[in-house]
Amino acid sequence: MSGSSTFSPLRHRAFLLILVGSLLSHFGNAIQSVGAAWQLTASGQPADIVALVQSATNLPIMLLVLPAGAWADMFDKRRVMLTAQIFMCSLSVLLALLAFAGSVPPAMLIGLTALLACGVACFNPALSASVGGIVPRAELAAGVALNILAFNVARSLGPAIGGAIVVSLGGFSLVNLGLAPVRRLASQTRALSADNLHHRLDSGEQPLELVPLIDQFNALLARIEKAYLQMEGFNADVAHELCTPLATLIAHNELALLRPERADMREVLASNLEELHRLTGIVNDMLFLSQADRGVGARRAPVASLASVAADVLDYHEAALSEAALTAKVVGDAHGAFDVPLLRRALSNLLGNATRYASSGSIVQINLRTTDEGRVLISVTNYGSTIDPEILPQLFDRFFRADPARSHGQSNHGLGLAIVGGIARMHQGKPFASSENGVTNVGIEIRPN
After folding, report:
1. What SS3 class is residue 76?
2. Which of 155, 279, 372, 445 is least surrounded by CB atoms within 10 angstroms?
3. How confident is the model at residue 278 (pLDDT cuts 50, 70, 90)?
4. Do domains 8-178 and 301-446 have the same CATH topology?
5. Which residue has the higher pLDDT, 265 or 105?
6. Residue of 422, 427, 432, 419 whose CA lies nearest to 446
7. Residue 85 contacts residue 26 (beta carbons within 8 Å)
């Protein structure tokens, strides 16, 4: 480079360092103003508040440029520049700490931006006035021009660089902030286990968009908790139901072995056989429920009249009904494609349940009808004690008995209505039960094809 070229002042190390430092400082101030505007916009401030950032950036420079020039002539220029830079650095550190803490009120942010602009207004005249003491007089014009060029380049490119930083880091921060509720939910779900299924996810501090998902997840947890409790109860009930006949078999056989000369061995064997049949019935019923739970469908065949099927079931239960001093009748009819053996079994279980709990001398009624939606309703109505509404949803659970004393334990092992529910599911339907004013109605709603 020649001695009179525009870039000749860059040969002087002191000028080059000051120029680069001031360029970076101006870049920082321009980027900070863009970040301040973005912060106010992201916090939902109105447009006139956001516009104050530009006022806070330019107004102090316009007001202080003349006094700052006088100060540069009155005091040591180096000390003025150092004081201005230390002042701006301290403000930048304070602003950064407040930003990381997340507590930067709009008024404070605009005020700190204005104070930074005051530092720029004091620094620039001192820098321009000190160029003559750093470069030779012949290169003074070029040095001043480079200083002005650095300031204008920073003012032009700084906002663009600031915008790029805001888009990059701001986008990352927004995504990170937006995912914070998801991380809190993940932390809550990690704390869930089989021992605390009663806990629910907290939706109190979550965005409204996540509340429906949290509610559905909590509903799922409630269903899982219920299923888990049913499974625990199921194990206890299975043990109870199997232990009773096994204990009877053991006792009978021990008595027979103690008295081998007894002639009533045939009765012992007959009693054992009865208990074995009961055990076989429990196991077969459990296998049937297992198939229903796995989604095995019914083997449908056209049925012209369900009333005739119900009449056959009534004939089978005639002796039990007569013994309980009950009368029975079939009301209505329906047709469709059904698994007749399964429906006979469902009707038999429903009728047997009604026979056990109906008041003596009352009427048991089998109801058959087709709804307006084309579904077939099959139910049995009896008159007796009203069932507690809290118990109704549990009637179709395995081994559930409304009577905790198990007064019908020898003839009923608590799977009858569970099987009815399984048969309903095999016909793409569901069971239902109601009990009001001494009238109990239990049945199934199924598809006719």
Report:
1. coil
2. 372
3. confident
4. no
5. 105
6. 427
7. no
d(Cα 367, Cα 377) in Å, to the nearest integer?
Answer: 8
333-356 per-residue burial string, b: 16 or more CB within 10 A, e: under 16: ebebebbbebbbbbbbbbbbbbbb
Upper half-sphere CA count for residue 284 (Cβ side, 13 Å): 7
pLDDT tens digits for range 205-227: 788 888 888 889 889 888 888 87
| pLDDT per position as a tens digit, 349-381 | 999 999 988 999 999 999 999 999 999 999 999
Note the pLDDT of residue 430: 92
Question: How sure is the predictor about 312, in pLDDT bands with cuts at 50, 70 and 90?
Answer: very high
Q: Are 409 and 372 in contact (CB under 8 A)?
A: no
Beta bridge partners of 329: 365
Output b/e per residue, 101-111; b: 16+ Cβ within 10 A.
Answer: eeebebeebbe
- 14/377 Cα distance (integer angstroms): 97
Q: How far apart are CA 128 and CA 267, in angstroms?
A: 122
Tell me the C-alpha distance between 219 and 120, whole Å. Answer: 60
Nearest to 19 by CA among 136, 123, 151, 142: 151
% of the chain residues with pLDDT over 90:
22
Burial of 364 (0-12, 13-18, 19+ CB in 10 A): buried
Segments making up each domain of the chain, as ranges: 8-178, 231-293, 301-446
What is the spatial distance between Cα 418 and Cα 230, in angstroms, rounded to a whole number? 13
Which among 404, 107, 74 has a CA at the least distance from the CA of 233?
404
For the segment(s) 301-446, the CATH number from 3.30.70.100, 3.80.10.10, 1.10.620.20, 3.30.565.10 is 3.30.565.10
Report the topology of domain 8-178: Growth Hormone; Chain: A; (1.20.1250)
Instruction: Write the DSSP assignment of 344-370 as a string of letters.
Output: HHHHHHHHHHHHHHBPTT-EEEEEEEE
CA atoms of 283 and 271, how far apart (whole Å): 19
Q: How far is CA 94 from the centre of its chain?
A: 40
Cα separation, 228 vs 413, whole angstroms: 21
Take residue 259 and report the two structure tokens written for it: 């008295």
Task: Read off the amino acid at residue 386.
Answer: T
- Which two tokens mark 69? 């020039």
